[in-house]
Structures are given as structure tokens and as C-alpha cells.
Inverse folding.
């Protein structure tokens, strides 16, 4: 079992201790630093617990903190860092910083290429719009050679096409279990099995039947079971597939700079 995207630095001490207890058997728990100020907290967790690895990045909502890119560069060779991000485009919370978000994304794409790390993409439009998805689909098609991870994939058809063209990884979260998300479930049927990851985005996006609660990495099982059903696999087959995908994407058996 694995969870390729969780914000452990945001969890309360009680939920964090529960998470550490419940995920000890995981092949991977990727802790994604939520802010530049949380990098050390995330790295400390990754250094302390052998199944936890770190993703470091400048989130789009912090794009004005471009000076933080120097610290990311310095930490990108850390042996417990296995991804850059999350980066991307967020027009929901801070559309006024779009130009800075693009600048931060380009810088992190370059750093990911130099460090041979996957780049985790965050993509969110304003309500009622798909502007961010369409813009990012164009960027993905033109991006330099990278391992790309579409975090909490929404099922957007242009992103699906662009990601498939670039052999991106598609990471599915709790919304895969939501009753009205049939278009997302259809996307999960179309993505090649070897390009699928699963995540919780804890503490956000809790799956059914836990909606309205603080999400926990151990609840990734609900998403995995729904994926297995959609792909007509046993839970064991689905778990083996997504674990192999996570190991390959984040190169758990290699050093972070391996080719």
C-alpha cells in the first residue's frame, strides 16, 4: 500500500501519531511540504521514518516567495527527497499571481530535470471555469522531458490527452469515490494501469464514507478499492500495481540522481 501525496506537516499531533501507527507497512508515504516554511518539518519526518519520503516545492499559492527556490535547489539532492512540487497553476485562490505561478513552475521544472526528480503538478481553476486545466494541458505538451505527476487528477479531458501523450502519471484521490464523479471514474478506466498512482491529499479530499472529516493516509484504501472495481481487478492485484508504479515513479530502489 502507498499514499503518494499527503501533507503530514499540517496534521494535528494526534492525527499524525495515528498516521505513523497505521502506515508502518506502507511501501511509500510521500509527505509533501505545504509551504517553504515547512520544508524542515517534512524532511525530519522523512529522515526519521523509513517508509516516509519527501516532496519539496513552491506551491502555486506561495508563488510570490520565489526566493525560496534557492532553498529547494539546495535540498533537491537530499536522499529522502523523491519529488519536486507540488507546483503548477491555481486560479481558484490566487488568480492575481498567475504570472508568478508560471515563473515558479518553469523554475521548478528546470530543477526537477536537473535533479532527475518527478514534478508533481497542482491544477485548479476558478469556480465554473477550466482555464487552468486547458492552460496546463498546453504546458504539459510543451514541457521538457520530465516524469510528470498529475496530482489529484480531476478527469479533465484535455489534461488526460496531454498527460497520455507525455506518459505522465495520473494520481487519483478520494474524489474517485464520490457518487457524482462518473467522468473521473471513466478517466481511471482509460489511463494505462502502469501510469496510475493513488493518494489521499490528506488532510483534504476524504473519500467516501469519510467526507467532511480530516482525511488520513490510511483511508487511501477506499480509493484503491474503487480503482480495483473500475479496472476489474482484485484489491490485491490493484495494490501490487500501484505499489510498483510508485516505486518506479519515485525510484525507491535507486538514488535520487539515478538515470
Amino acid at each position: 500500500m502507498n499514499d503518494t501525496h499527503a501533507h503530514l506537516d499540517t496534521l494535528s499531533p494526534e492525527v499524525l501519531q495515528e498516521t505513523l501507527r497505521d502506515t508502518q507497512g506502507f511501501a511509500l508515504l510521500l509527505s509533501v511540504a505545504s509551504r517553504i516554511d515547512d520544508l524542515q518539518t517534512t524532511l525530519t519526518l522523512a529522515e526519521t521514518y523509513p517508509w516516509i519520503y519527501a516532496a519539496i516545492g513552491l506551491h502555486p499559492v506561495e508563488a510570490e516567495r520565489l526566493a525560496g527556490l534557492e532553498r529547494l535547489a539546495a535540498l533537491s539532492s537530499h536522499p529522502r527527497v523523491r519529488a519536486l512540487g507540488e507546483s503548477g497553476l491555481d486560479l481558484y485562490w490566487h488568480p492575481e499571481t498567475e504570472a508568478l505561478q508560471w515563473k515558479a513552475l518553469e523554475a521548478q521544472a528546470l530543477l526537477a530535470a536537473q535533479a532527475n526528480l518527478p514534478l508533481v503538478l497542482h491544477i485548479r481553476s476558478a469556480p465554473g471555469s477550466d482555464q487552468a486545466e486547458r492552460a496546463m494541458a498546453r504546458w504539459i505538451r510543451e514541457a521538457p522531458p520530465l516524469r510528470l505527476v498529475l496530482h489529484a487528477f480531476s478527469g479533465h479531458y484535455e489534461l488526460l490527452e496531454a498527460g497520455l501523450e507525455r506518459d505522465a502519471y495520473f494520481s487519483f484521490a478520494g474524489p474517485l469515490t464520490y457518487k457524482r464523479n462518473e467522468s473521473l471514474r471513466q478517466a481511471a478506466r482509460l489511463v494505462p494501469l502502469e501510469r496510475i498512482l493513488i493518494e489521499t491529499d490528506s488532510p483534504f479530499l476524504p473519500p467516501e464514507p469519510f467526507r467532511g472529516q480530516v482525511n488520513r493516509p490510511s483511508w487511501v484504501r477506499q480509493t484503491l478499492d474503487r480503482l480495483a472495481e473500475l479496472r476489474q481487478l482484485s484489491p490485491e492485484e490493484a495494490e501490487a500495481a500501484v505499489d510498483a508504479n510508485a516505486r518506479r515513479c519515485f525510484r525507491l530502489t535507486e538514488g535520487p540522481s539515478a538515470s
